[in-house]
Amino acid sequence: MFCPRCGKEYAERVNFCCQCGAAMCIPVPTPSKKLTRSRKDEKIAGVCGGFAEYMEIDSTLVRLLWVGLVFFGGWGLIAYIVAWIVMPVEPLTKPEPASSAAPQPATSH
Ligand SMILES: [Zn+2]
């Protein structure tokens, strides 16, 4: 680790820099909110669930809006496919303890 103020390198974790006295307690980086395809709330590809998680709204509402876009104009389907390709899948391991116990076994599709 390096001192953020003077750049002195430390092999071990220290709380304060012995050279300039700067606080070395680096706060734990909070996971940035990312638009990802949901693993736990997916119907087709988890795109709607991912959007719902990102915007903190009901995934059903997202699906209703999205289906509306598919029928009115038709580009909702294209948008879905683009989002499917572009959006990364939500990472398997989450830092916070999972409320649901074990990951559900993959059922046959
Ligand atoms: Zn320093």
Number of strands: 0
- Report the radius of gyration as a whole number of Å: 21 Å
Gross geometry = elongated
**What portion of residues belong to β-strands?**
under 5%
The main pleated sheet reads as: none
List each distinct ligand once: zinc ion
SSE string: HHH
Helix content: 25-40%
Low-confidence stretches: none
Short description:
31% of the residues lie in helices and 0% in strands. It has 109 residues and is mostly helical.
Structure characterization notes:
The chain is an all-alpha fold. It has two domains: 1-28; 31-92, no CATH class. 31% of the residues lie in helices and 0% in strands. The protein has helices at residues 47-55, 59-71, 75-86. It is elongated, with a radius of gyration of 21 Å. The mean pLDDT is 78.
List keywords for this structure.
mainly alpha, 0% strand, binds zinc ion
Layout of secondary structure:
Elements: H1 47-55, H2 59-71, H3 75-86
The structure holds zinc ion.
